[in-house]
Amino acid sequence: MHALKVTRAEDFPEWYQAVVRDADLAELSPTRGCMIIKPWGYGIWERIQGELDRRIKAAGCENYYFPMMIPLSFIAKEAEHVDGFAKEMAVVTHHRLKAVDGTLKPDPDAELTEPLILRPTSETIIGDAFSRWIKSYRDLPLMLNQWANIVRWEMRTRMFLRTAEFLWQEGHTAHADKAEAISETMRALEMYRAFSEDFLALPVVAGEKPENERFPGAVSTFSIEAMMQDGKALQAGTSHYLGTHFAEAQNIRYQDKDGGMTLAHTTSWGVSTRLIGGVIMTHGDDDGLRTPPALAPRQVVIVPMLRGKPEDDDLKAYCASLAAELGALNVFGAPLRALVDVKDARPADKRWDWVRRGAPLICEIGPRDAAGGQVTFIKRNALREGEKVKSHTLSRADFVAQADVLLRGMQKELFNEAKARLDGNIRDGFANFADLERYFGEDKEGEFKGWARVHWAKPTGAALEEVGQRLKALKLTIRNAPLQQPASFGACIFTGASAVEEILIARSY
Amino acid sequence: MHALKVTRAEDFPEWYQAVVRDADLAELSPTRGCMIIKPWGYGIWERIQGELDRRIKAAGCENYYFPMMIPLSFIAKEAEHVDGFAKEMAVVTHHRLKAVDGTLKPDPDAELTEPLILRPTSETIIGDAFSRWIKSYRDLPLMLNQWANIVRWEMRTRMFLRTAEFLWQEGHTAHADKAEAISETMRALEMYRAFSEDFLALPVVAGEKPENERFPGAVSTFSIEAMMQDGKALQAGTSHYLGTHFAEAQNIRYQDKDGGMTLAHTTSWGVSTRLIGGVIMTHGDDDGLRTPPALAPRQVVIVPMLRGKPEDDDLKAYCASLAAELGALNVFGAPLRALVDVKDARPADKRWDWVRRGAPLICEIGPRDAAGGQVTFIKRNALREGEKVKSHTLSRADFVAQADVLLRGMQKELFNEAKARLDGNIRDGFANFADLERYFGEDKEGEFKGWARVHWAKPTGAALEEVGQRLKALKLTIRNAPLQQPASFGACIFTGASAVEEILIARSY
Asked: Are residues A305 and A361 in the same domain?
């Protein structure tokens, strides 16, 4: 018996929904395709924001806030950009309601002269500001970031992974030349890799997207890709070198040292609440989420075994002083986050709530623990021995002394587990497309396949389109060409010609 | 000569715009009525968020995130609420664009069955969630908060004070009974008062709004009101007791201890980026903003007097080590925020940039300071002696040792200055409406008038409407009835009847 009604093996998509619901992460809202992010989920997002914001600022970016509503004409400026986004735009057309025959309707007299679109991304409105702010080489580089809500109309939605509204961070930078802009693109990519691996315990492969998977308007797009427990890939973050495409469309020019007017080179990069979906599908188990300790809104949760008796007061006092002692510790560079759960509910129910949420250390303190100066606890990342929940007991002094080591150890264990899964499930040895077809063509619904690592001749244009179609028939896409490449290449699996690159191919979210 | 092109005395509204622009706080965007918040302004907002979030969580509220787009039918549920907001709603009607004769337009085939409105406030969508989440008395109180962007279509906009989109925090709570809900309403009000006074150095009067100034759908609305340097009032935060109005409209009921179904009592409370406007108009002077040290994104800014010579390196090293030493200090419960401004610009220009932004302590370090182990600095809140900028010099050791005391002292001085202005400009002694008319009726454009404190019989309905009209003719409104009331009352200035309450009347933003 597990804490969730469905296991990963039985039905992975259903299991995912069960974790999202039962771990108090999010739920569907009455607004179609949008979610309500609940305290444990939002707490995780706050932790992501805090840590990533620190890293973004350390790189020299400053935070700004731009309007969410963008004049329609702005979107039309960059041709590829509008093609990429026009199909999923929410459009504001009126600024007032009016009761018509007792029913509220958009007031026909309050139609906007120019409709506004809700930002699907902010290159256009930020590029416009760049064109006003950048005058001389002294104004470069201009590096900014924004934390914001984003709207992309999606027909099929899945919580955290694909919703009409989501939360993200978008970095936008402008540079004097290509070399500096590419260096910034790679810096952001490496920042995301290190952040994912260190903080989310999410191992990823950083690499470049093929031409047909680029961000609309980009010269090159890089991504970090993580492997979920069903073997699919999740694009967890992207970094784009935009060349001078947006600079041309929006007239972002600066006076260089020789007095000439030169186009700036721009970049953009972002991660979103989608990361939370990646954390769930990487670290979750059949009892719910296992939140990496660095990321957990609460790292140690103390459940007093209250019984509605006079001794309860002593027990509560013991738990409160334990939490205070823990809160004075420093772990992962910040005060340890401990909580005593004194809610009016059965202790066993509270324990299982925290198991489902994935609080890293869950202490169940009874009168005997309090009297004996002990702490009985479970490690959420190694909850069971066989079928049984495994609990540990330490003296209170030892528990406090070891809390930091325990939490750091669990963070490492979660990473290692996921890293072994990623490394062990990238398959080589596909000599040609038929091999790939055989391997991916034969799977049953939901079978774990992992990723394929193959060599290709990096076709472009129509030839790449054809490759895309062949892969699509197998429900596959090219994830990226890893930054780490081998010294030599075999034959292209699509054409048999000499390959120039190694790429990862997988099913994906 | 001052650092701004216009002084407060010459033209207060123009001066305000100059501070917003020249202190790098915000600028108008190409989206009508919306602003771009720039680094110093957004940094101030981040500080507000950080400190207020801490206080909100300490009170037991948890953060959630609800959709920004709300189905139109939700808004219609509470009758007063829809009347209050229908005139200023941005309405999403389409979810796709289409090129028609080469021009992008909302695609007629992608019209939404039910339009969505952009949240002007979230009582309706949160109330709907309350109705699903609250089942038993054990689920109460339910206390949540959200940091979000808000859209209210405004015809006349002014940066930070009134824009189509702004950022805010909205608390929403549900309680078992009236007493508990009112207690929460008052807790939030007191939280805002203490936050404004301690953290923003913004003295306020907390009190209850008259019936005609209530939030649409509220039983009672409380506010904190601050006095700006032109004598006008700024509503800086509100807290509403909503009674069972929203609970009835949205069926928020719980099973009480006896098994019966009972309506919950709800509250809501919020502050917004408008607070930044209040800080500007309270603490700004003719040289720009004076940012209260607790709030300042940078508390000490060090400008090295670089001259493009080899000695520059020593100077930079001296400044960097000074900043590191300062950064190791704790002030207002957090590490001191110090910055060395090494931008490629003239030192004098950099100094004046920081004066306009209002960095509390601005150090100008030349080779002589570095050689002599000194720090030369200006205190932004007491920038000048006569017309001249006054600078101070301390040994480096003394400056570091005194930094905390200096910053705390400046915070206190800014508060005291504003508190003296508030206390000294609330006028009593208006025996009747004619007195009020005489005092406020005779002013010239922009003349400082302050507030009036008068007694009234607290009329309701049509009688209150009439009072409102009489005040409106003088461009006045009732701000609030302060929580601190006198022991006895004279005659109502509107009717001559026995008064029951003391109220504040003022021009306002």
From this structure: yes
Task: For A109, name the nearest residue in chain B, comparing CA atoms only.
Answer: B87
- State the pLDDT confidence band at B503, using cuts at 50, 70 and 90: very high
Residue B473 domain-assigned (yes or no): yes
- Min Cα–Cα distance to chain A from B484, Å: 36
Domain boundary among the residues A378, A407, A422 is at: A422
What is the mean predicted confidence (pLDDT) over A66-87? 88
Q: Which domain holds residue A456?
A: 427-506
Whether this model's ipTM surpasses 0.95 comes out as yes
The C-alpha of A100 sits at a distance from chain B's nearest C-alpha, in angstroms, of 13
Q: How confident is the model at residue A443 (pLDDT cuts 50, 70, 90)?
A: low
- In the predicted model, is pLDDT for residue B379 greater than 80? yes
Which residue type occupies A77? K
Contact A128 B30 (CB under 8 A): yes
Q: Cα dihedral angle (A56, A61, A66, A71), rounded to 10 degrees?
A: -100
Residues 6 or more apart whose Cβ sits within 8 Å of residue A75: A81, A82, A85, A86, A89, A117, A124, B97, B104
B79-135 residue pLDDT tens? 787 888 888 999 999 999 998 888 899 999 999 999 999 999 999 999 999 999 999
pLDDT reported for residue A155: 82
Asked if B104 lies within 8 A of A92 by C-beta distance, the reply is: no
With 0-12 CB in 10 A as exposed, 13-18 as middle and 19+ as buried, what is B4? buried
The Cα of A151 is separated from the nearest Cα of chain B by a number of Å equal to 10
| Nearest-by-CA chain A residue for B128 | A30
Q: Which of A31, A62, A88 comes nearest B67 by C-beta?
A: A31
What's the pTM value of the predicted model, to 2 decimals?
A: 0.97
- Express the helix, strand and coil content of chain A in percent, nearest 5 each: 35, 30, 35
Name the nearest CA neighbour of A314 among A362, A361, A369: A369
* DSSP conformational letter for B158: B
- List, in order, residues 6 or more apart from B221 with CB less than 8 Å away: B208, B209, B213, B214, B215, B238, B239, B240, B241
Interchain pair A69, B138: CB under 8 A: no
B254 within 8 A of B176, measured Cβ to Cβ: yes
Of all residues in chain B, the one with the smallest CA distance to A125 is B30
In the predicted structure, residue B330 carries a pLDDT above the cut 80: yes
Q: Are residues A411 and A439 in the same domain?
A: no
Q: Is the pLDDT of residue A468 over 90?
A: yes
In-domain check, residue B293: no
Measured between CA atoms, how close is B287 to chain A, in angstroms? Answer: 23
- Compute the distance between CA of residue B504 and CA of residue B451 in angstroms, rounded to an integer: 7
Q: Does a structural domain hold residue A221?
A: yes
The answer to whether residues B318 and B451 belong to one domain is: no
Of B29, B92, B344, which has the smallest distance from its Cβ to A92's Cβ? B92
3-state secondary structure of B309: coil
